[in-house]
């Protein structure tokens, strides 16, 4: 029963408590509600954050692995490239070395060989030296020859002079002008003594120069050793020598009989030509003018071929045997003097 | 009158004619009589005597006419106008050798004066008759007709072509082989006159086989013959490379070099002309000449002559050096440059000096070695003075300027360049300073020398527009030296120093 009483004592309070509880609870409802919301949101937030953290961690792991993979791949690529570049550089280096050597060699050997050029220039200067010496020698030789020739000419001239003035030679009585008694004799004196005299062309020489045309001065006997001729005739009244001598006149006549050449010998070899020349000159003298008589220009132009009798056919023309001596075209020579021509009528009446 | 008296009249007349024509011929040998003869109307009197009956009178009349026509061209024209030529040509074919000689003499005397007169001779058909005379037995006739043909062919190409068309060339080549020296001379001179005008004519002469005979005659002793032969060969060789090669193939080297030592001046001149004509075509021909020692011979020849005789030799050196630098080096080691410098300073004629200047320029323009060889002989100041002097001809000035420029652009021999700093005009100064600016940065001894010789001072005094090439060179030079030295040598430095003295406060 006590509990009942306690419960009944609490009964009036229930209303108020109920009302009070509900009212206070409403008061706290908002707060509690907000607190609950806060707690829940916080918790939800925590949960989500934990999830996101978890996701992030997973993502990091994936990305870490992926980036590692990429990096390693890149690294491998870089290593390869670096290796290739190193190799290429090496090759280039070596190629440069080879080319350097080769180009130097080529230029020095084929394009510009310095030592060859030096050799060449030395050879040129040697040749020059040799040529200069040779030319000097040559010039000297020429000079000597010329001097010798000059000396010889001088010698000859002196000799010639000495020969021409041979009469100045000194005799025992009369000393010549080159042999003065007060001095040493002049060298010219010795020269004159040495040479032989210069003779004027002799008579025999002169006979050869006579005109060959004039045969009447020749002797029948033409030997040089015979019968000298002089201008002085022998005296007329010479007493005949005693002895069996022939008459002098007869003998002289026989001896100095002139040459009596035949006509053939006496005419000169050019006589025919000379005669022709003379005739031509005479004719030229007598001519009135020099114009040559020219024939009619068309006289020999239109010569027709006259075949032989044996080879003439009716197609190749009339041979001489068949030639007519009458005029073939009589109308050619007829003029139409006196005939009046009416050209219009001619055309009208037709060509008649 | 008796026949004898009649004949005596004719004889007197003939004697008078003979005397007249002989006296006229004799008087015509002296120049002072010819004026008087011309005024007395000798032409109209001589003309009928050419047609005289007596052959001696004809010949003497022709001889007199020839001598008169030889004297001057008025008389030669009078001969042409007087219609004497056709008669001469006609009788040239017929008469004896004395008349032929005299008639050929007249034709030669008329033809030598001018191309118109020579054309008149060709027009009256003389060429065929002259060529026929070339076949005559008498060497005097051949000589006279070859001489006439040579004089006609001398004037111009058309007349030469006419002579060649008349068939003269093979006969002239035959004449060259004759034993008479005078005939050889004249034939060689005629061939030379024919071949000088054009390559085709020279080719015609070569085709007739002239080169071999001409080359053989170089060894002959007669000086005048050698002159003509060398002249003929050089006229042939000058036209083209092929002709020059044919001349060389006739083995003229080294025989031609002996002609360079001949006593006769004109033989030397013609020989150096021949070598020049061969050397100028290609480097290979020049090389051939150098290898045969020709350069040394030519240099000696230049040294032994004076005046115009030297000119072909100088030009030959220039042509050889122009082809390549190896050949120029060959000229240098043959001691050519001192000789050329002597020519440049000694000669009085401008054209020879111009040739020497050109040759030096060709030698020195290749490399610094060559330029140094030229500069060492002190030729550059001479060239500068020739360029600057007012009485040099324009050609000489142009050539010396070009030579100076070419040599300076390669010259690194500073002692020779220094005098140029002082006297040169601005356009040359630019090149000189440029050369200094190229050399000084690399050579310390040269820098020292430059300062001590006063060159740096002079460079500072040069006024140049800023930005021009000259200023750039000057800057380059200044950069080679420390600043104090440059300032020391710059003009007006002493004034600035004194100003500093004036404005200085002494330390008490």
TrEMBL record, chain A:
Keyword vocabulary terms for this entry: Calmodulin-binding, Coiled coil, Cytoplasm, Repeat
Subcellular location: Cytoplasm
Keyword Cytoplasm found: yes
Pfam family membership, one: IQ
GO cellular component, one term: cytoplasm
SMART domains, per database record: IQ
Coiled-coil ranges from the UniProt annotation: 117-164
CDD domains: IQCD
PANTHER family with a match to the protein in the record: ASSEMBLY FACTOR FOR SPINDLE MICROTUBULES
Protein name, as recorded: Spermatosis associated 17
Species of origin: Monodelphis domestica
Lineage, highest ranks first: Eukaryota, Metazoa, Chordata, Craniata, Vertebrata
Gene name of this polypeptide: SPATA17
TrEMBL record, chain B:
GO biological process per UniProt: epithelial cilium movement involved in extracellular fluid movement; filopodium assembly; neuron projection extension; sperm axoneme assembly
Main location: other
Xref: InterPro entries: ARM-like, ARM-type_fold, Armadillo
SMART domains: ARM
GO molecular function, one term: microtubule binding
GO (cellular component) term, any one: acrosomal vesicle
Subcellular localization(s) per the UniProt record: Cell projection, Cilium, Flagellum; Cytoplasm, Cytoskeleton, Cilium axoneme
Keywords (A to Z) from UniProt: Cell projection, Cilium, Cilium biogenesis/degradation, Cytoplasm, Cytoskeleton, Flagellum, Microtubule, Repeat
Quaternary structure and interacting proteins, as annotated: Interacts with SPAG16 and SPAG17.
Function field: Important for structural integrity of the central apparatus in the sperm tail and for flagellar motility.
Name of this chain's protein: Sperm-associated antigen 6
Organism the protein comes from: Monodelphis domestica
Gene giving rise to this polypeptide: SPAG6
């Amino acid at each position: 029963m006590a509990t009942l009483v306690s419960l009944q004592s609490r009964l009036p309070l229930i209303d108020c408590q109920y009302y009070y509880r509900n009212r206070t609870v409403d008061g706290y409802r908002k707060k509690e509600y907000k607190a609950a919301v806060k707690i829940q949101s916080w918790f939800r937030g925590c949960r989500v954050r934990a999830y996101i953290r978890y996701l992030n961690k997973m993502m990091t792991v994936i990305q870490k692995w992926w980036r590692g993979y990429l990096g390693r791949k890149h690294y491998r690529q870089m290593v390869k490239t670096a290796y290739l570049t190193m190799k290429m550089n090496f090759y280039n280096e070596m190629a440069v070395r080879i080319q350097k050597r080769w180009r130097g060699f080529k230029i020095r050997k084929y394009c510009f060989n310095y030592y060859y050029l030096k050799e060449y220039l030395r050879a040129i200067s040697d040749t020059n030296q040799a040529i200069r010496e040779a030319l000097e020698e040559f010039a000297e030789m020429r000079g000597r020859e010329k001097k010798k020739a000059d000396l010889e000419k001088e010698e000859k001239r002196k000799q010639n002079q000495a020969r021409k003035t041979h009469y100045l030679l000194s005799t025992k009585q009369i000393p010549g002008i080159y042999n003065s008694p007060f001095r040493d004799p002049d060298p010219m004196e010795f020269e004159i003594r040495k040479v032989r005299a210069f003779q004027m062309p002799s008579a025999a020489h002169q006979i050869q120069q006579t005109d060959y045309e004039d045969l009447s001065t020749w002797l029948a006997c033409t030997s040089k050793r015979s019968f000298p001729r002089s201008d002085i005739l022998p005296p007329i009244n010479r007493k005949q020598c005693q002895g069996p001598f022939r008459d002098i006149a007869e003998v002289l006549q026989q001896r100095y009989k002139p040459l009596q050449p035949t006509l053939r010998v006496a005419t000169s070899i050019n006589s025919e030509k000379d005669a022709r020349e003379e005739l031509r000159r005479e004719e030229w003298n007598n001519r009135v003018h020099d114009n040559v008589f020219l024939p009619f220009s068309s006289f020999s132009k239109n010569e027709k071929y006259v075949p032989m009798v044996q080879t003439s056919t009716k197609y190749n023309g009339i041979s001489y045997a068949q030639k007519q001596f009458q005029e073939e075209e009589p109308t050619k020579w007829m003029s139409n003097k006196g005939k009046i021509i009416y050209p219009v009528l001619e055309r009208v009446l037709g060509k008649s | 009158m008796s026949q004898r008296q009649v004949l005596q009249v004719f004889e007197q007349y003939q004697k008078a004619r003979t005397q007249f024509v002989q006296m006229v011929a004799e008087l015509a040998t002296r120049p002072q009589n010819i004026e008087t003869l011309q005024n007395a109307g000798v032409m109209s009197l001589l003309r009928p005597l050419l047609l005289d009956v007596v052959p001696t009178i004809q010949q003497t009349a022709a001889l007199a006419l020839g001598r008169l026509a030889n004297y001057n061209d008025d008389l030669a024209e009078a001969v042409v106008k007087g219609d004497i030529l056709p008669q001469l040509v006609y009788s040239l074919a017929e008469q004896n050798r004395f008349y032929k000689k005299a008639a050929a003499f007249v034709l030669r005397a008329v033809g030598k004066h001018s191309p118109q007169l020579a054309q008149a001779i060709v027009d009256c058909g003389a060429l065929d008759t002259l060529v026929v005379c070339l076949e005559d037995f008498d060497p005097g006739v051949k000589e006279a007709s070859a001489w006439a043909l040579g004089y006609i062919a001398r004037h111009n190409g058309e007349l030469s072509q006419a002579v060649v068309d008349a068939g003269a060339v093979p006969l002239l080549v035959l004449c060259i082989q004759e034993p008479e020296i005078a005939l050889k001379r004249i034939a060689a001179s005629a061939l030379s006159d024919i071949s000088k005008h054009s390559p085709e004519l020279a080719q015609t002469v070569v085709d007739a086989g002239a080169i071999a005979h001409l080359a053989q005659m170089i060894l002959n002793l007669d000086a005048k013959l050698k002159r003509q032969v060398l002249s003929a060969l050089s006229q042939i060789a000058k036209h083209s490379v092929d002709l020059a090669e044919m001349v060389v193939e006739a083995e003229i080297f080294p025989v031609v070099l002996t002609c360079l030592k001949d006593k006769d001046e004109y033989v030397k001149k013609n020989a150096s002309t021949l070598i020049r004509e061969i050397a100028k075509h290609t480097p290979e021909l020049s090389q051939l000449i150098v290898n045969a020692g020709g350069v040394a011979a030519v240099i000696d020849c230049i040294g032994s002559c004076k005046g115009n005789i030297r000119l072909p030799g100088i030009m030959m050196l220039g042509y050889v050096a122009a082809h390549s630098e190896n050949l120029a080096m060959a000229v240098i080691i043959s001691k050519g440059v001192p000789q050329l410098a002597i020519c440049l300073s000694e000669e009085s004629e401008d054209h020879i000096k111009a040739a020497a200047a050109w040759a030096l320029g060709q030698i020195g323009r290749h490399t610094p070695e060559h330029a140094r060889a030229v500069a060492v002989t002190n030729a550059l100041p001479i060239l500068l003075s020739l360029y600057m002097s007012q009485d040099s001809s324009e050609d000489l000035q142009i050539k010396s300027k070009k030579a100076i420029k070419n040599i300076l652009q390669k010259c690194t021999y500073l002692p020779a360049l220094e005098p140029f700093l002082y006297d040169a005009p601005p356009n040359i100064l630019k090149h000189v300073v440029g050369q200094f600016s190229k050399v000084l940065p690399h050579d310390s001894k040269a820098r020292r020398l430059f300062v001590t010789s006063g060159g740096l001072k002079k460079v500072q005094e040069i006024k140049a527009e800023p930005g021009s090439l000259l200023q750039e060179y000057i800057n380059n030079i200044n950069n080679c030296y420390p600043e104090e030295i440059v300032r020391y040598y710059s003009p007006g430095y002493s004034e600035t120093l004194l100003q500093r003295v004036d404005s200085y406060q002494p330390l008490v």
